[in-house]
Specification:
Blueprint (H helix, E strand, L loop, with lengths): L5 H10 L9 H8 L11 H20 L4 H14 L2 H19 L4 H9 L2
């Protein structure tokens, strides 16, 4: 085997012929990362268009004769979910799901036992 010390490796790395970096490398990296102005997540005209479409959709849902049954169904579902007994059962279910997810996973030990290790 070819065993070399760290000092030898450092000396060999320092002796490698390397090209000089471009003169504006530091400035171009800063311009591309730190000094770059972030773009707007959404344009104002696009936000306005989505607002208008959402308003029209809401108006159609509440005033459209074909959607009256859907609005009634949503009203009944919202009323059923707002009952105290339903909220208690949903809270208990969420707490049990959280507790079960917090239990450590023993499946790795079971798999090892099956393989005979």
């Amino acid at each position: 085997m070819n065993e070399r010390t760290d000092d030898e490796l450092d000396r060999l790395l320092a002796a490698l012929p390397l090209e000089e970096p471009p003169a504006d490398l530091h400035a171009s990296i800063l311009a591309a990362t730190v000094q770059r102005v972030p773009a707007e997540p959404i344009d104002p005209w696009e936000a306005s268009a989505w607002g208008v479409l959402l308003a029209l959709a809401l108006w159609f849902v509440t005033h459209g004769s074909a959607f009256a049954g859907v609005v009634t169904l949503l009203d009944r579902v919202a009323f059923a979910l707002a009952q105290p007994a339903t909220l208690i059962w949903l809270t208990v279910g969420a707490a049990v799901a959280f507790a079960v997810s917090a239990v450590p996973d023993f499946s790795a030990g079971i798999n090892l036992a099956r393989k005979g290790r």
